[in-house]
Amino acid sequence: MQITFPIITSPEAERSDFLEYFQALADSDFQEMVAISPFVDVFIIENLVRRCVFNSRRLTIVTRYGGHSITNRQRQYINEAINELREIERTKDPSIRNRIVWYENRRVHAKLVIVDWRRVLFGSQNFTQYGGLTGNYELGALIENGEEFEELRTFVSQITAGGTARCLYPD
Amino acid sequence: MIAKRRDRHQVRDVSGRGFALHLRCFGVALTKMYSWIDDHRDAVTNLLTRELHGEEFDARMSVAGIARGDYRPDRALDLTGAAAYIREKRVFMKYLGLARADGIVTQRMIRYVQQVEGGTNPNELLRQYGVEVKLACPQVRTYRYRSGQKQASYAHYRIRPYVMLLYALRQAKDAGVILNTDDIVLSVLRFYPPQKIDPITEASLKAQIDAHIQSRSGGAIDYEAHFRALHQEVEAELATEFSDPITFKQKCRNAANEAWCFLIFAEKVGLVDTVARQPSHWSATQQEYEKAGRRTPPTKYQEVYLTPIGERLLAEADTRNPVWFADLQSLAESQHEALELASIIARLAAHEPVPDAELPQAMCSRLTVLSIHPIPSKEGWLAERTPLFHFEYDLP
To answer: In Å, how far is B50's CA from the nearest CA of chain A?
Structure first.
């Protein structure tokens, strides 16, 4: 097991190492990605989605808020992103319905990116540009394993199938 | 200030349409093109990118290009020229399947990046993509030429331009003829408006190419007369008469320049060899002119030869059956059905056997219309002549 620590985000030191590792994971030749963050900037999710169209990649997104308890503007952005997914499914790649899933879970507080169940980037950062990724003091770590983290699958399935979870896409 | 897309046709100084297909986007040194592809990759894959298209995107790309010294605006010192240049190069990337208008990151781009980062020369990949370029692929099929008030596009074309070029060179080689830039304009790149032959298929264009090569093999031909005839065709089409003699020169020189740009890519990736010469006859390439105080110099006159690599790729391309989404869309009764059909074709294109149950009779008859003939195999149906069709490239 290989651990990269600390992964620092510091506005003062102009460091956003978490973002750099996140970017590298997103650019990697992954087959499956799970992105969990209570708060997100929707364009970051959209950028992940754009990597998963016209191929066989799987993407699971979990956010804390989707349809309620957020401002009108945030709700509008999320709805637009969901509509974009529906549009892609309707006009371009119907298979995303079986490969891309977006849940909201009001009790989720973890922030992590899992790639192929072998690499986990996690920390205190929300996936927001001017908050967690570049604007706050945050700390994280990257763990890479030769084998899959089986317990993580259980953890993610609990987050996505628990009573507080709701599927935003596909509906 | 960045030129807006909707305004660009207003600033272009042309009198109606030209003689040749507009594929100028292929005219760039590949080393420079690598940088543009890299810039584009950075822009579309950056997790923090908000706006993937539009003027901001163009501006960002322009600034990067100018800063690197790839593009030196010879006009006013604003970003207009660079932005237009960038849009043209994005068309190049769209033709090659490296970019899409919707910003979806394509597998081709991912494979390209892997090759570059692995230290491999990506020319082999670009060559492969080049041979698969379709006119008009859905990403660029809105590309228009001006014809008076009327707007038309390449939507009636069903050809792979580089395959047509290689075909012309092979036929010329067999006939003992050396093709030059003028010949390429008059055969491979000659523009046929929709009403002339509709649609322009590879078979119909091959017949035109064969006819041209046959006339060449009979001895020297009067290029000027051929270009004059083209000019008259345009005049007849537009129901106008160009009084300014520069218009003819301009159209000839533009068409020759298109051919030169078209050949640059083919040469750089090793599909063809070219030898620059001074023509011994009247040539469209030599039609220099002066307009509005600016002199436009002659363009390059070249003789073009087929390379062994080009010959091999042509033989491979001949075994494929290119399919256009627009055609299968017109066959299907709904968007859903079109996507279903596309999915079957994409599987056949990837040599993936399609089980019997997934290929009902109705679907089979539609495939037959598209010249796809399913043949049985142990695992399911395969296509007799493998289609050339990729979801990410062929879907709008």
So the answer is: 6
* Beta strand ranges found along chain A (DSSP E): 2-10, 15-16, 32-37, 58-63, 100-105, 112-115, 119-123, 138-144, 165-169
Looking at the partner chain, which of A47, A90, A94 has a beta carbon nearest the beta carbon of B49? A47
Q: Which chain A residues contact residue B104 at CB under 8 A?
A: 50, 53-54, 92
**How high is the ipTM of this complex?**
0.93
Which pLDDT score is estimated for A75?
84
Task: Please state whether the predicted TM-score (pTM) of the whole model is above 0.80.
Answer: yes
Q: Which residues in chain B come in under a pLDDT of 70?
A: 1-16, 51-54, 72-80, 141-152, 196-197
Nearest CA in chain B to A56: B107
Please tell me which of the candidates A50, A129, A133 has its beta carbon nearest to residue B104: A50
Question: Has residue A163 got a pLDDT over 90?
Answer: no
Question: For A34-87, what is each residue's pLDDT tens digit?
Answer: 999 999 999 999 999 999 999 999 999 999 987 666 788 888 889 999 999 999
- CB contacts of A29 in chain B (<8 Å) are 110, 114
Q: How far is B47 from chain A (nearest CA, A)?
A: 5
